[in-house]
Design goal:
By secondary structure, the protein is α+β, with helices and mostly antiparallel strands. The chain is built from 4 helices and 2 strands.
Length: 201
């Protein structure tokens, strides 16, 4: 497109000189100008398309879309770690980010609950009951012939976990996996919002 645009500019100059010398028609000059305008529009669209494709490539690679892609002069080495994503816009008030924050907190609390299953637990229990017996329905009257008695109990229970078939360990490992997945989801969400922001500029 750029090469054609340069050629059209040269042709426009030639045709304009011919028109001034009476060797070309005005419609020829107008047609060349229209073609030049169309080519410049196509050039802008192409550049915008390249920018958007570049941003999509950054997003697919897990790279912050605000960073520039710089190819090294030497051969590319194996990528062992993805770059840390940084916010280019304020995302703290976004509903999606708030939901992710809540999910992170819940997953962290869930993991703490699983870890606490390794600890001994001490529980205090108590109850009180009152029973009454009578030959008639006069349990509550002042001259009641009912025989009543109360009973109470207090208990203390100690639970010491010894072995549960590695169930607790499996729960903790699964919680770690869920936390890692949540972190990756956050990176993808932040980068996606930055992608939309960069493409909208």
């Amino acid at each position: 497109v750029l090469f054609r645009s340069k050629n059209i500019k040269v042709i426009e100059k030639i045709v304009s000189n011919q028109y001034q010398n009476g060797l070309a028609k005005k419609i020829d000059v107008d047609r060349i100008k229209v073609n030049l305008t169309n080519l410049e529009t196509q050039r802008e669209q192409t550049l915008n398309g390249i920018t958007q494709l570049e941003n999509q490539l950054k997003y697919a690679m897990g790279m912050p879309v605000s960073n520039e892609i710089i190819l090294p002069a030497t051969e590319l080495t194996e990528v062992t770690q993805l770059p840390l994503l940084t916010d280019t816009i304020s995302l703290s008030n976004r509903t999606k980010i708030k939901l992710l924050n809540s999910t992170d907190k819940l997953l962290a609390l869930q993991r703490k609950a699983y870890v606490s299953e390794y600890y001994p637990t001490l529980a205090l229990t108590g109850n009180y009951t009152y029973s009454s017996q009578s030959g008639g329905f006069d349990f509550l009257s002042s001259n009641s012939s009912a025989i009543g008695f109360g009973s109470s109990a207090i208990g203390l229970s100690l639970r010491v976990p010894i072995f549960n078939g590695f169930l607790t360990r499996s729960k903790i490992r699964q919680a770690d996996v869920d936390i890692t997945k949540a972190k990756e989801s956050r990176k993808e969400a932040v980068n996606g919002l930055n992608l939309a922001y960069e493409n909208a500029k």
